[in-house]
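ok trying this again, last paste got cut off
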Amino acid sequence: MTEPVSMSPWLHGMPSADPEVRLFLFPHAGGAASAYAHWLDMGGEGLELRSVQYPGRETRLRERPVSGIGELADQLARAVAADTPGARFAFFGHSMGALLAFEVARRLRDLGEGGPVHLFAAACAAPQVPRGIEVSTASDERLSAWLVRQDASAAEVVAHPELAALVLPSVRADLTAVENYRLVPGRPLDCPITVLTGVEDSLDGTAVTGWADHTTAGFGHHAFPGGHFFVRPSAAAVQALVRELLRAGPR
């Protein structure tokens, strides 16, 4: 897991000297900053990484998980604004993390702060699309089974009652946040939005193209081998695309 380099508990990362751009990484529902541990080698050469740490897990395990996208976005927007005075930065979010990154970008605009130069939305339907999941109030057993179906790597965790007791509250809070999310109409962002999907995931049609409604600066879509968690096996290809698009962006 990355070590924190700022006073904010929300942000972990690897420092670099005078980075050209900071890339904030937003984990999936139930995820934590360590979800991006395999991205560490991507840092350097002008790119600085910040991995977001939600309350209720890992270094923030003793804190209450937040069960609302709006509340999370409000607090994260302030943390990002304090972390990036005058710097160019971009957002990469996976699943719930993409939805949250979008809302943080909108709040930064409302605060009069500079917004991201690019928003990467991985494995996430456009904000206006109904979420279609209803498991946040399920029993621990049913929730665990759903979690393993989504992410096979979770099987080892939920198989141990002590670990499951630590993990499931944050998963439940995140899913509650996603299930209760409703898009509030607003102006589109002025940064490009690039959607990344796994060819074996269930996203298609307006779930993908609907993201184009939320930008005035260009929309793109790239598909990779794999399912909902394609960002793991396709990490090298995803990272190469992110670097390429950030380098091509305005300075």
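PB: full thing came through this time. The chain is about 35% helix and 15% strand.
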